[in-house]
Model the fold of this input.
Amino acid sequence: MSPDATGVDAVIDAVTAVFLVVGALMSLGAAIGLLRFPDLMSRMHAATKPQVLGLFLMLAAIGLQMRTWWVWPVLLVAWIFQLLTAPVSAHMVGRSAYRTKHGHREMLTKDELEAVVQRAAAGQEPGDDR
Amino acid sequence: MKEIVLIVTAVILSLAAAGAIVRIAIGPSLLDRVLASDVLLAILGAALAIDMALNHHLNNLMLLVALAVIGFIGSVTVARFVAERREQNNES
Done:
């Protein structure tokens, strides 16, 4: 973004601007999805966009703007940890949403978890915490 | 160009944060609020990243890494709490 930006610098600045705007649009899409989707499961689908792809675009913009190589491993560590921890929270929230009868069951086309839960509730291990 | 990008992303992120806060306020259940607060945290991280990228500093980079590492603990804890409390209500 320097005033004498020519050639490669102009291209890098343009790519950075596109990354930042698209990454911000991911957050806006998540907010619209949170407001408009009918139940918790579909809202979880929308909520993951800024956490993974939006964060990737933002970190890539930082790396492009800083022009130093040592920044990239730190950014990669941040993104990989986000990739590792986002499924954990999504799994726990989805599990407790299923167990507490959130959402609209009639909107599901197939429910493969119900048979497993019924079998666990009926049977062998009383302490089975599936 | 820098100012244009800053203004555009600030407007977009403000609208997104407003939407997430509305969902926190009106969310019918606790899990909806937890999910919306996760989105609000992601929007905050995006704002920090935009500030760092446009102003060429790295002051908040370790904060972003820490958010990525421990940001999920809150929603996991609340999810466990909701499950156990509902099960007790069903049994009683």
Observations:
- DSSP finds four helices and no strands in chain B.
